Amino acid sequence: MWRLLGQLNKNLLLAIPAMMVAGFVFGLATEPAFLKSLILPFTFLMVYPMMVTLKIREIFSTGDMRAQGLALLINFAIIPFIALGLGIVLLGDHPYLLLGLLLAALVPTSGMTISWTGFAKGNLAAAVKMTVFGLILGSLVTPLYLNLLLGARVPLDLGLVFRQIALVVFLPMAAGYVTQQFLLRRYGRDGFAQLSPRFPPLSTLGVLGIVFIAMALKAQGLAADPQQLLRLIFPLILLYASNYFISTIVGRLLLPRGDAIALVYGTVMRNLSIALAIAMTAFGAAGSDAALIIALAFIIQVQSAAWYVRFTDRIFGSAATPCPHKVIHDSTST
Q1: How many independent structural domains does the chain possess?
Q2: Are 54 and 77 in contact, with CB atoms under 8 Å apart?
Q3: Do 80 and 145 contact (CB within 8 A), yes or no?
Q4: What DSSP designation does 77 have?
């Protein structure tokens, strides 16, 4: 089982589209409404393993505060408003599709933020902090952003949204931390180091389960209007392209290589599983429209992250040879 999960984790480029197709076929062949009861368990499965393996001490380390500040600025002062603008222009007559696009832009960072930063040889400690800060702050401000930006377009029960976020974010975070402390006390650091690699693949299982459910619930609507997919993908491509462009330029101009790479993945990688869970549990049947655009974002996010790794050295220089702006930055900071 662990070997299979590991293979899925290494092949998300294929696994997510395959799961979307499987969910689509399942939704056409059956009545998939019963799958809604599995949304919370799968979302818990996505967040919980990340917290079990998280090195809490790294969160409080210093040395990358500029990168952390820039990540918060991009994640909460820029990207949500780009998403809102794109949604109004391209999806304005469908408020729940606009809701989905905004949700995809409001909850930054996922476990893959750390993974992709590692693949690109970026600053892992900075990526860990961005992941935790982004997840906690994004969860707290998402209901407020939704109320401020979409309150006039979409009926919003603010209390319900906060309760759902507590269930899908803070409960698994707490459970993961308790599990980590239990394993450390029982097996020690060496034993925990041997056990911890088993947890991250479980996050992949949670992501794939959520994608399957979202596609299954929307399958019949997509079959009736297949052109809807093309309409939804276009604003998503523009949103991710804008995010990559802004984060890359800011990283090159203001940060050393490792921090710049962490900044890109700490802003572009969105916690789409949590966004899906919020859409499908806090907005009733209409939330399935929002869930569809979030499910499609999975494909663009994973595919684009993999391609960006291939061009990282061209953009920021190789890990062994820092790009020129890093030298300039280092010399001016002394």
Answers
A1: 1
A2: no
A3: yes
A4: I
CATH of the domain at 277: 1.20.1530.20
Q: If 0-12 CB within 10 Å is exposed, 13-18 middle and 19+ buried, where does residue 225 land?
A: exposed
CA dihedral 159, 54, 247, 315 (to 10 degrees): -160
The boundaries of the domain holding residue 144 are 2-332
- Among 90-104, 273-287, 318-332, which is the least confidently predicted range? 318-332
The answer to whether the beta carbons of residues 255 and 67 sit under 8 Å apart is yes
- Report the mean per-residue pLDDT for the chain: 83
54 near 199, Cβ under 8 Å? Answer: no
d(C-alpha 303, C-alpha 16), whole Å: 10
Contact criterion met (CB below 8 Å) for 2 and 201: yes
Asked whether the predicted pLDDT for residue 327 surpasses 60, the reply is no
Q: In the prediction, which pLDDT does 245 show?
A: 97
Q: What are phi and psi of 108, to 5 degrees?
A: -75, 160
pTM metric for this prediction:
0.81
Nearest to residue 297, comparing CAs of 190, 214, 204, 196? 214
C-beta neighbour count of 31 within 10 angstroms = 9
- What's the CA angle centered on 143, arms 146 and 228, to 5 degrees? 45
The backbone torsions φ and ψ at residue 270, rounded to the nearest 5 degrees and listed phi first, read -105, 150
